[in-house]
Inverse folding.
């Protein structure tokens, strides 16, 4: 986990002060998911680069994973819960339709009563959408925010659908953001392409198709995805969006940015990073061990990458997926003093 510098900032810059993550202890292998889906370990690895994933046990909830990740991020940042002025949880698998999962997280981590806490659902782009929102809200206030991405997708998957069940895992990742002596968050870009929103969906459970015995029997609560079309979306929409973003905001001082992308599919990440010119040593992944953890994948991967980042390193966070949407954030890294 990464920690903040001890210096007291005197600017309005907002930076990432600490990171944390939480993965369920239940490891699910390719052989286990492949058996019912009719595919082999070799097929899954060749198509996705995923070796295993973590699935929550029945007594684990999205809020619990999120709260654990948040506490770890607060400890890493050296920030007390009393100093938190905002809690935002990005999730498309909340504990329940209402109240917001963020309220359960806020209660569990002990932030003061009256602190705003809310959810954002931008699916796999959600963490960057939440980070952007929180950064704007606390700028100039001197307060800190806890921003979390958390999902339990294992409960939305059709165990016989090889297009989806082999890809997804469960988990949570969190950051604490606040005033920093460095430059912090340099730029963000959020984009949605609603004309393609049907590519990834869970049809039932909302106001259009309310939950019923019939909707359950018809499998309408399962996560569905057009994998080939999603790949085209990443190539045609996400790649150009990232290029334009970096052209506009990457400092012209010779520094190379580290790439922390959404862990959609290992082969897709390899192709995207290669197309954008990110070297393997600057491309950070967790997909082989954890699969696609939805809104949690970017912050989990950032937490795992933190020890490889140096003072002043540039980090590109890139979420993309259902909506269809993409969220980008360029951050200047500020690790603890003396490391």
């Amino acid at each position: 986990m990464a920690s903040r510098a001890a210096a007291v900032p005197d600017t309005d810059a907002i930076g990432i002060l600490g990171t944390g993550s939480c993965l369920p202890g239940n490891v699910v292998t390719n052989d286990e998911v492949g058996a019912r889906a009719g595919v082999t370990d070799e097929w899954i690895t060749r198509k996705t680069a995923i070796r295993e994933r973590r699935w929550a046990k029945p007594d684990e909830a999205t809020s619990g994973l999120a709260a654990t990740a948040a506490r770890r991020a607060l400890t890493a940042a050296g920030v007390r819960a009393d100093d938190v002025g905002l809690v935002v949880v990005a999730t498309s698998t909340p504990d329940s339709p209402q109240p917001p999962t963020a309220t359960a997280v806020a209660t569990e981590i002990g932030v003061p009563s009256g602190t705003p806490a809310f959810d954002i659902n931008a699916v796999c782009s959600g963490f960057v959408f939440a980070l952007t929102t929180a950064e704007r809200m606390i700028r100039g206030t001197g307060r800190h925010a806890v921003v979390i991405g958390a999902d339990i997708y294992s409960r939305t998957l059709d165990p016989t659908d090889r297009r989806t069940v082999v890809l997804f895992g469960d988990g949570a990742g969190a950051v604490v953001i606040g005033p920093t002596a460095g430059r912090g968050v340099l730029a963000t870009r959020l984009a949605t392409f609603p004309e393609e929103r049907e590519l990834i969906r869970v049809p039932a459970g909302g106001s259009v198709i309310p939950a019923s015995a019939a909707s359950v029997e018809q499998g309408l609560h399962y996560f569905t995805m057009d994998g080939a079309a999603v790949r085209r979306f990443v190539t045609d929409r996400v790649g150009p969006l990232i290029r334009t973003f970096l052209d506009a905001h990457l400092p012209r001082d010779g520094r190379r940015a580290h790439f922390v992308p959404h862990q959609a599919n290992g082969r897709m990440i390899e192709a995207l990073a290669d197309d954008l010119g990110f070297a393997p040593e600057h491309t950070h992944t967790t997909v082989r061990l954890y699969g696609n953890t939805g809104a949690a994948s970017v912050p989990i991967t950032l937490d795992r990458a933190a020890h490889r980042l140096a003072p002043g390193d540039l980090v590109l966070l890139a979420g993309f997926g259902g909506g269809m949407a993409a969220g980008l954030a360029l951050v200047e890294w500020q690790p603890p003093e003396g490391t």
Notes: The longest strand covers residues 170-179. The first helix runs from residue 30 to 37. Confidence is low (pLDDT under 50) at residues 2-10. The CA atoms of residues 50 and 94 lie 25 Å apart.
